[in-house]
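Note to self: keep these together.
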Amino acid sequence: MTCAAAQACAQGRVCLVVGVSDGDTLTARCGEPGAYQQIKVRLSGIDAPEKRQAYGERARQALAALTFQHQARLDCAKTERYGRSVCSVWVAPATAPDGPKTLDAGLAMVTQGLAWWYRAYAREQTPEARGQYEFAEREARARRAGLWGDAEPTAPWDWRHSSSTVGRHNRRPRACLSRLSRKPLSPATA
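Structure:
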């Protein structure tokens, strides 16, 4: 996203959600016909289960139900290291689809128990938003909503860490492979 686009986005712009990658990432089409710009958006304040993680697909489906093919107001604060704009995403509630965009999609995901409040980035939220997200997560836990129905749900940041560590340590070093066949050498020839 260019600097000018980031500034416009920070002030809030209305875009059409054209894709949902997972429970906290979507693609939006912004601009006018003939001059559309697609931006990848990471919802601020939440971390949802990864696609291959328990509840990952349910989280993606829930975010899609809230946002896909809907106009959304994007209030973006920054661009993160993967190039995604980090935004609060506001849509009209299902009960008033043509009404104002008053539903915070990230807060709705936490309320449904399909995302964690991302405390590591709480300082980037207003005190009011921090209170709302914290309360929503506490309530979802108490109701055992969504992923909180599991005895010990794994936070996405822990799941990503354990997945990357397991992947690295379970790989066989290339030196143990035969150069010609690329098959593992038998213990006798290793």
